[in-house]
Amino acid sequence: MSEEEDDRKPTKSWSEKIREARAQARAHRQAELDAALAADDVEEFERLTLAEDNRIHGRRRAKLEGAIVKRDAKALAPKTDTVRWADNEASRDWRAGKRSGGTHRNSARFALQPGAMVRLVSDARVYTEGSWVMARKITKGTLGILIDAPPSDMHGHVAVMFGADIYKIECKKLRQLSDEEE
Fold it and tell me: What is the C-alpha separation between 158 and 56, in angstroms, rounded?
């Protein structure tokens, strides 16, 4: 062994690096708190303790607030078997989709129409129309014609015609061509 090999230290794993970075961050935050106490800076100390409390308990508080909003939205939901369903403002808002006071759930939907030209956004495995045996891979950018209406979930498969062949392909790999792209 040469001297260079003896002097080398083994590299740290990612978990050790992360552990050390967290310890450094904790020490830095504690040093800031100690400095604020030593300087008798009450406002800075309160700001730092509030930030630390928010860092530790912020996610739990956000989840609790979300649960309260969801509970309140359910309480506002009109009962289906009553006359109230059609008569009041809350019912009209509920049917219009305004269910939780301005917060909306992200619904991943695709504007794919049967018969439209579609383009692959990434390489995709395609399956023959009658079975789930992979037929081949089709490359990104390939154009086809959408045969089926897409299902409600983004992982569903639809029939697409590439050339003269019809294949089943995942919905999330397709994007409808706009008028400018055609």
Answer: 45
